[in-house]
Amino acid sequence: MISLDSATNRQLAEVTCRLEAQFKLIDILSVLPIVESTVHYWKRKFKNDDPDEPLRVAIKTIWKADKHYGVRRVYLKLRKQSEFAKVNHKKIQRLMHEMGLQGVGYNKPSRKYDSSKGPEGKRVKNKIHRRFKTDRPFQKLSSDVTEFKVPATGEKVYLEPILDMYNNEILTHAIGTSPNLAFTLQPLNQLVELLPTRSYRTTIHTDQGWQYRHKSWRNILKQNRIIQSMSRRATALDNAVMES
User: Fold this and answer.
1) Domains recognised in the chain with CATH numbers
2) What is the 3-state secondary structure of 8-65?
């Protein structure tokens, strides 16, 4: 290994060019015994001497324009250009490594939350039948559990609102880190406290999530004379007023 004291300007410039893919030039120059003007001189010389410079430019252009592709996709893109049709993928890999270019790994989408999986409970018929309009408050209500992923932490957060179809107002809601039964019952219990005396029935419509089929949810509805309605299986439009 060559020490910094015995390294030539060319060697120092080569090291600087490699490090620039990861660090700022000003930080590199504070460590290596080479001045900025010398670095730029050798950069121009490398560009003139390097037969792979056109290929390097093409690789970087594709990498920048196409969502930071990896070696395989950059290689396939280059093959479509006549001047690079015979380029070897190993060479592409070597040059991308030298330039510090890496592909962004494919992240398989996480499975969407499915509230239907859980204790069987009891399913009921759809009594709303997509008739989402009403001229009476607290007559037709809707609820649903929705999963959100926090980008900064990757944690999952759940929201369950209860909506009044009369004016699309969110009457009550709950936010939690687990869609368990206690979480789901929170807005329902809050709703019971809000319900005024009325001369007509109240119907609450949901999907077939296990929480809504649970005995505890159904008992609260029964005790407060609230009619239960459910969407048909895998038919989101039956609860479009809330899904939207």
Assistant:
1) 9-99 (no CATH), 140-243 (3.30.420.10)
2) CHHHHHHHHHHHCCCCCHHHHHCCCCCCHHHHHHHHHHHHHHCCCHHHHHHHHHHHHH
